[in-house]
Automatic annotation (TrEMBL):
<protein>
    <recommendedName>
        <fullName>leucine--tRNA ligase</fullName>
    </recommendedName>
</protein>
<comment type="similarity">
    <text>Belongs to the class-I aminoacyl-tRNA synthetase family.</text>
</comment>
Length: 254
């Protein structure tokens, strides 16, 4: 855990019906994968969600209608932040693993792709955020490399039972932000420049994230959506507030 408190936006990625057997007990509820992000302004470019195959997750009642799928740890934190049907106490309806989530079709706020799928990422930390990550491969180096690996390594896809039709190809990546130095798909450019081999290339990915994260915020301009042409820095808080006001996201601290 970091020493600094971190505030995430939790994006409500709705599981599209019909539910698979494992989610049967959730029939009649609105069920979401709750993805923790620091970049709500990038949600236009979502291509999939990421889950940790061996990760432990649960389906938690947040209120009368909504169920969030996330780690037990995040559910407990949320309960103390007034996001639990039972005050101060997580209420788990179904215990799940990442394997149960792979292949779920999702509808996510702002995404230009109407239906996206949950796919495996092996570097997800279970002690950070919700254990669910939304994938924006245009601007997130980790997301780009994990998508790269699924595209280039059929054995990886086979190992986790991932169907071809769930996996966006690298040419499907949506340009959403221009950064003068890195172009319209900053993560792809920086991963190629640094010759990053896979999602496990930790040190280089730290450098790639440092480069794109800072520049994206200070020099990025939107290429898409309601705020096209505007600076990321100016519109990031506006998009965040909108997502919260429309009920498509909540704020989560840890
Ligand atoms: B970010 P910090 Cl476009 N394990 O969202 C691994 N990574 C996780 C995670 C977990 N349990 N929970 C969240 N994250 C990712 C968007 C994004 C992100 C973009 C660019 C950079 C970026 C789309 N993915 O993060 O350690 C999430 O990915 C660069 C750091 O708390 C979240 O924001 O600083 C970010 O890491 C939180 O990382």
């Amino acid at each position: 855990e970091g020493v600094q408190p971190q505030e995430y936006t939790l994006i409500k990625m709705e599981v599209v019906k019909p539910f698979p057997l494992k989610l049967g007990p959730l029939e009649g509820k609105r069920v979401f994968l709750a993805a923790a992000t620091l970049r709500p302004e990038t949600m236009y470019g979502q291509t999939n969600a990421w889950v940790l195959p061996d990760g432990k997750y649960g389906a938690y009642e947040i209120n009368e209608t909504d169920v969030f799928i996330l780690t037990d740890r995040a559910a407990l934190n949320l309960a103390y932040q007034n996001f639990s049907k039972i005050p101060q106490k997580p209420s788990c309806l179904v215990e799940l693993t990442g394997y149960d989530l792979i292949g779920l079709p999702l509808r996510s706020p702002l995404s230009v792709n109407e239906i996206i799928y949950a796919l495996p990422m092996l570097t997800i930390l279970t002690n950070k955020g919700t254990g669910i990550v939304t994938s924006v491969p245009s601007d997130a180096p980790d997301d780009y490399m994990a998508l790269h690996d699924l595209n280039k390594k059929p054995a990886l896809q086979a190992k986790y039972g991932v169907k071809d039709e769930w996996v966006p190809s690298l040419s499907d990546i949506v340009p959403i932000i221009n950064i003068p130095e890195f172009g319209d798909k900053a993560a792809e450019k920086v991963c190629l420049d640094l010759k990053i081999k896979s999602q496990n290339d930790k040190d280089k990915l730290v450098e790639a994230k440092r480069l794109t994260y800072l520049k994206g915020f200070t020099e990025g301009t939107m290429l898409i959506g309601e705020f096209v042409g505007r600076k990321v820095q100016e519109i990031k808080p506006i998009i965040k507030t909108k997502l919260i006001e429309t009920g498509e996201a909540i704020i989560y601290g840890e």
